Amino acid sequence: xxxxxxxxxxxxxxxxxxxxxxxxxxxxxxxxxxxxxxxxxxxxxxxxxxxxxxxxxxxxxxxxxxxxxxxxxxxxxxxxxxxxxxxxxxxxxxxxxxxxxxxxxxxxxxxxxxxxxxxxxxxxxxxxxxxxxxxxxxxxxxxxxxxxxxxxxxxxxxxxxxxxxxxxxxxxxxxxxxxxxxxx
Length: 184
Description:
Structural class: mainly alpha
Radius of gyration: 17 Å
CATH topology: Four Helix Bundle (Hemerythrin (Met), subunit A)
Shape: elongated
């Protein structure tokens, strides 16, 4: 756990040294890494990137940088959910989970909006409105996840399983972040 957390912090420090104003903020991790607390922390991380976008009002350069950080945070968030969280929940039930399907559809919608934003610049008509819709969709996604999935996670997985999943999420986060850094 310590090594992965240090790797994420090192990544953030390298980005900060580059002088980017829209750097990713490390995920706050308790001494005991729990999958539920990790999910909430990841939601908070995306929200902090949204705040950077809102603070950049009037500066197209800063808005663009903030959108890059939002895209990276969202891509990481969706990947962690799709690769680890949803399969862990599904693995503990024999029936089909409509809540997970709804979350997957919201992930897909977030991806589609990000693809559209990827072909735009802040000066384009509708750019800011599309970013605001992205924020609304994500906030609904986070709210649904925290109200519907977190109780299921706590019910279906024991404390040790939640901690193990939390460590897997943290490890994968470090992998995704280091890849993101090399891609710049």
